[in-house]
Amino acid sequence: MNLETRDPVVHTLGVLEMAALLRELTAGLLTVDDFDEGLSALVRITRDALVGVSWCGFTALRAGEPAGVAASDPGLAELDDLRRASDSPALDAIRRREMIRAEDLGRETRWPTWTPRARELGVQGAISAPVDIDEQVIGAINLYAATPETLTTGHQLTAMLLAEHAGLLLAAVRDRARRAALAGERGSALLGDGVVGQAIGVIMAQRGCPAPEALEVLRSAATSLTIPLHEVAERLVSTVARPRDT
């Protein structure tokens, strides 16, 4: 169907629905720092938002190897898992870096292993769009329909926009995960770092809290006072060690 000939009201509604979907995706993934959790939110929100899409899945590869899979319906997760089939719309989308659309799997011959299993599970139409996440991870978002001829040119356009937005959001999720891991490593190092470790011990004793929480208290004080962490630690330790007047 030519998008230029569509009914203006229907086209406007599509634009509004797409904007709402992207807004909900952004809100859903904004604070997530676990990649698998991000994929799960992505497929669930997409499935619920798109009319005609019965299920949604995601296939991820890292350095050319399967790195993650998510499905809005766990019963269909195998369709997005490249370890279960050597051919699929998702794999074609990733390899060819282009949108793959199958309006009616009953007439489909491109994926002789994947298609029969998909039809057994109730899938009659599919669209896969490549998603670029970062220099290490790529993937495909997969839209599935329960009836043939349901997924239209409009769904293709939606999948293209969705893939672009999802790539940016998932890249941000991976970046937050890396930052959190790095902060954790630095925090572990600081726990045994001379005066900082001593200051953490003082805060733990005063507040009855665990070491990670004590470290956050110390960091918060350094930020509020705009002075280095080590200096805050030194001040705290020297204050506690200072003899009291009798």
TrEMBL record:
Pfam families: ANTAR (PF03861), GAF_2 (PF13185)
Species assigned in the record: Micromonospora nigra
Domain ANTAR: 176-237
PROSITE patterns: ANTAR
Lineage: superkingdom: Bacteria
Designated name of the protein: GAF domain-containing protein
Keyword terms: Transcription, Transcription regulation
Any GO MF annotation of the entry: RNA binding
InterPro entries: ANTAR, GAF, GAF-like_dom_sf, WH-like_DNA-bd_sf
Keyword Transcription: yes
SUPFAM superfamilies found in the cross-reference section: GAF domain-like
